[in-house]
Amino acid sequence: MASTTGNHTIVTMAKSCPIQNVADLLSEARRVYRERFDGDDANIAVCAPGRVNLIGEHTDYNQGFVLPMALPMVTVMVGSKTSGQNCCVVTLTEAADEPRVVDFDLPTELTPLLRGQPNWANYVKGVVQHYRVQPIPGFRAVIASSVPLGGGLSSSASLEVAVYTFLQQLCPDDGDQVAKAVACQQAEHTHAAVPCGIMDQFVSVLGKEGHALLIDCRSLEAIAVPLADPGLVILITNSNVRHSLTGSEYPTRRKQCEEAAVILGKSSLRDATLQDLEAAKDRLDSVTYRRARHVIEEIERTSQAVEALKKGDYKEFGKLMVESHNSLRENYEVSCPELEELVSAALEVDGVFGSRMTGGGFGGCTVTLLQAHATERAMEHIQEKYHGSPTFYITTPSEGARALRL
Ligand code: GLA
To answer: Mind listing the pLDDT tens digit for each residue in 235-245?
Structure first.
C-alpha cells in the first residue's frame, strides 16, 4: 500500500500474520497456571482448532453439505483436577470481556449452570453442563488462543471443543467424536444463545491434517478430501469488522429456511430440488424464495466443488466459490461492503482461482484459493484496494482437537 504524506511516500508491504504456534501458547498457559495457582504445574493440556469453510455456507442447519477445514490456529487449555466442587478458569485471550478469571460450582440436577457474565465463560459453563459423563470433578484451568476472537473463524467452537477435550482427560467419556461435537453445539445453543449448525464443532473435533472435510450434516458422516497441493495456497483475509446484525440475522435466516421447507412439504431444504422450489414459487414470498434458492443451490455446489477438488480442477472449484459468494450476497443477504471489497480485489489478481466470504457473514473473513506464487501479489493488491485494514493468514488444513504432551 502506498500513501503520500508531504513529500514522502510510505510503502507498507502486505504481510501475512504469523500464527502463534501451539508450543508457545502452551508454555504461556502453563506459566500463568503456575503463577496463579501457587506454583503448581498443570497436568492436563489439550487444544482444539478454529476453522475456515471453503464452501457450503448456511447449509449445515438445513441438513446439507459443508466443506470446512481445521486451522492451525487453536485454543489451548491446561489445568488439573481438584478435590472440591469448584471450577476456576482463567483466560489469556486479550479480546475476552472482563473479568478474565471466573469461579463457579459444578452443576447438579437441581442447580444447572446458567448463562451470565463474563460472556466468554458461558462457553466453558455450557460444555461443563452438556458434558456426556456426569458428575465431573472440580478443576482449575488456563485458556489461551490464537484463533482471532469474533473473526468468523470459530473461536467459540474451538473454545467449546477445547473444554470438552479437557474434560475427557479428567473424566473420560466413550470417545464418540460425533456425540462430542453435538454436545458442544448444544452448549452454544443453550449458553451462547446462538442456534448454530454442526459444522464448526464437527470440524474442530474431526479435522484432519492436509484435508478438507466434506460433512453430511444430515447423517453426520464425513469424508476427508485431500488438500495439500504445495502449489496451492488458502489465504484468509480478516476484514477486521463485525456488524452488529450478526446476532439477530442468523436465527432469522434459520427460521426462513425452516418456513420454506414446510411450504415445500419437506422435512428440510436438503430434500428440496430447484424444481420443487419453482413449483411452489407462488406460495413463497420473494425473500423466502431467495433464501431457499441459495440453500438448495449451495448444497449442490458443495458436492460439485468436492468433485472438482478430487480432480485437482481448482479453476472449477474457484468458480463455484465465486458463485457461492454471489448467492450469499444476492439471495441470502449476509455479505457487507467490506467483504465485497475484499472478494472483488482478490478476484482481480492473476493466479487467484476463487474467493468468497466465509462463515456466518456481516463481517469476519474471506477465503481465497490461489496459486502459491501469486500470494504476495494478492495480499499487496487486496491491501491496496481495501478501505479498512486487513489481516492475512496463510493457512493449511490442520488436525482436529487433541491432548498435548506436557
Ligand atoms: C456460523 C455457524 C455455522 C454455520 C455458519 C454458516 O459459523 O456457527 O453452524 O451455520 O455460520 O455457514
So the answer is: 999 999 988 76
CB under 6 Å to ligand 1: residues?
Answer: 53, 57-58, 60-61, 196-197, 199-200, 359-360
Is the pTM for the entire model greater than 0.90? Answer: yes
Angle at 32 between CA 31 and CA 36, to 5 degrees: 125
Is 9 a residue whose pLDDT tops 90? no
Length of the chain: 406
3-state SS assignment for residue 349: coil
In the prediction, which pLDDT does 2 show? Answer: 43
Question: Is residue 107 a contact partner of residue 128, using CB atoms and an 8 Å limit?
Answer: yes
Which residues, 6+ apart, have CB-to-CB distance to 161 below 8 Å? 48, 75, 180, 181, 184, 201, 204, 205, 400, 401
Q: Which three cell numbers stand for residue 45?
A: 493440556
pLDDT digits (tens, 9 = 90+) for 122-156: 999 999 999 999 999 999 999 999 999 888 999 99
Please identify which of the residues 38, 40, 105, 200 carries the catalytic annotation. Answer: 200
Question: Phi then psi for 266, rounded to 5 degrees?
Answer: -120, 155
| 200 counts as catalytic | yes
Burial of 149 (0-12, 13-18, 19+ CB in 10 A): middle
- Give percent above pLDDT 90 in the chain: 92
Q: How is residue 253 written as a grid cell? A: 435466516
Distance of alpha carbon 283 from alpha carbon 289, whole angstroms: 9
Task: Return the bridge partners of 240, or none.
Answer: none
Parallel, antiparallel, or unpaired for β 86-91 and 139-145? parallel
